[in-house]
Amino acid sequence: MVKIGLIGIVAAFLALPLRKEKAEYAMAIGMIAGVLIFFYVVAEVSYVTDFINDVIKYLPVDKSYIVILFKILGITYIAEFSSNICRDAGHSSIAGQIEIFAKLSILILSIPGLKYVLDILNEFL
Question: How many domains does the chain have?
């Protein structure tokens, strides 16, 4: 977390004086910092996937639901990342559209899990 914080702080301090004179350079610095943070997080995801795979071995859960969960997590992270870049570039309407599309995608992906839960509840009733 310290590395991520330092990348963000350094990028902010580098972009701050450039924002008035060379706004495109300030935006580029912000995007580069965002991409660096994104790749660092992606590299750390392997620890989470290893843990989830260990949990799957002990729980009787269909693996397809875990895959859906990871897809939903990926959608949320990518949507947040891309919408923040759009907002920083001054395109808040595009950022809003990205967020709406992400929410709809998550809703569509969650339908099989919801159906599974409803089927289980139906068996008990």
Answer: 2
Burial class (CB in 10 A: 0-12, 13-18, 19+), 75: middle
Report the Cα–Cα distance between both ends of the chain, in Å, rounded. 47
Contact 14, 31 (CB under 8 A): no
72-110 tens-digit pLDDT: 988 998 898 888 888 877 888 888 999 999 999 999 999
Which residues, at least 6 apart from 88, have a Cβ–Cβ distance to it below 8 Å? 27, 30
Could you tell me the pTM of the whole model?
0.66
Q: How confident is the model at residue 6 (pLDDT cuts 50, 70, 90)?
A: confident
Alpha helices in the chain (DSSP H): 2-21, 23-58, 63-88, 92-124
- Asked if the structure places residue 5 within a domain, the reply is yes
Q: Is residue 55 part of a domain?
A: no
Cβ neighbours of residue 59 under 8 Å, at least 6 residues apart? none
Are both 32 and 68 inside the same structural domain?
Answer: no
